[in-house]
């Protein structure tokens, strides 16, 4: 997949929001998210929830999770599962998607499939990188990795790696990686883990909600600097 700079990157102005939260891979676990937001006293009038992507597949409430894209208090980067769904519906070649949790789509009635098609089509416009410069905390959110040693807004990087790569987390787990320069905090999902993993300035927050784990939602305003 290719894209220009404006398609890949999106800036969020933190001054426009009260509290800002980042969420790990959702994968259809809509009720778990609603319960979490209630416990956090999330204010839909003033707060913002940023997703690392993979809203859909494997879980029970995929259409409800896609409907979050309509909410003014919600934004997301595109995950590889959104990409698989988009590619499957665009090309008619749905084998990869169905093998990776996409069978929920064929169980929908005609009206549900039509709505899902429309929502999945909108995911093609989602950014692959969200940038939130909070001063002492400069936050970068991508689905799988930021495939460069230095972050720069608008830098041309491998878009497939942003959604699919596990190279950096594998190196981190082997003790062979380094900080990513150019921002203070990087948040990734994609790789299901039993708990949050923190390496240097990188946080891996897919804690396996769809596999019986907890859904991670973190308040960015409270991160250590």
Automatic annotation (TrEMBL):
UniProt cross-references to InterPro entries, sorted A to Z: Ap4A_hydrolase (IPR050126), Calcineurin-like_PHP (IPR004843), Metallo-depent_PP-like (IPR029052), Ser/Thr-sp_prot-phosphatase (IPR006186)
Single biological process term from Gene Ontology: RNA decapping
Molecular functions per Gene Ontology: bis(5'-nucleosyl)-tetraphosphatase (symmetrical) activity; phosphatase activity
Example of a GO cellular component annotation carried by this entry: cytoplasm
SUPFAM superfamilies on file: Metallo-dependent phosphatases
Segments forming a coiled coil: none
Domain Serine/threonine specific protein phosphatases: 77-82
Highest taxon above the source species: Bacteria
Family annotation (Pfam families): Metallophos
Gene3D superfamilies xref list: 3.60.21.10
Classification via PANTHER family: METALLOPHOSPHOESTERASE (PTHR42850), SERINE_THREONINE-PROTEIN PHOSPHATASE 1 (PTHR42850:SF10)
Protein name, entry field: Serine/threonine protein phosphatase 1
Species this protein is from: Biostraticola tofi
């Amino acid at each position: 997949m290719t894209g220009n700079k404006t398609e890949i990157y999106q800036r969020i102005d933190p001054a426009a929001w009260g509290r800002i939260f980042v969420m790990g891979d959702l994968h259809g676990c809509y009720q778990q998210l609603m319960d979490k937001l209630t416990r956090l006293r999330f204010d839909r009038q003033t707060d913002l929830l940023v997703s690392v992507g993979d809203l859909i597949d494997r879980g029970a409430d995929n259409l409800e999770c896609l409907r979050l894209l309509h909410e003014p208090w919600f934004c997301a980067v595109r995950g590889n599962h959104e990409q698989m769904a988009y590619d499957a519906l665009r090309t008619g070649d749905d084998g990869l998607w169905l093998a990776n949790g996409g069978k929920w789509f064929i169980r929908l009635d005609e009206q549900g499939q039509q709505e899902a098609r429309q929502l999945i089509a909108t995911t093609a416009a989602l950014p692959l990188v969200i940038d939130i410069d909070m001063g002492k905390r400069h936050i970068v959110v991508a689905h799988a990795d930021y495939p460069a040693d230095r972050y720069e807004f608008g830098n041309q990087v491998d878009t497939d790696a942003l959604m699919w790569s596990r190279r950096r987390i594998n190196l981190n787990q082997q003790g062979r990686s380094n900080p990513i320069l150019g921002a203070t905090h990087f948040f990734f999902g994609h790789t299901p883990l039993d708990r949050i993993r923190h390496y240097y300035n990188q946080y891996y927050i897919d804690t396996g909600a769809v596999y019986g784990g907890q859904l991670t939602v973190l308040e960015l305003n409270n991160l250590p600097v």
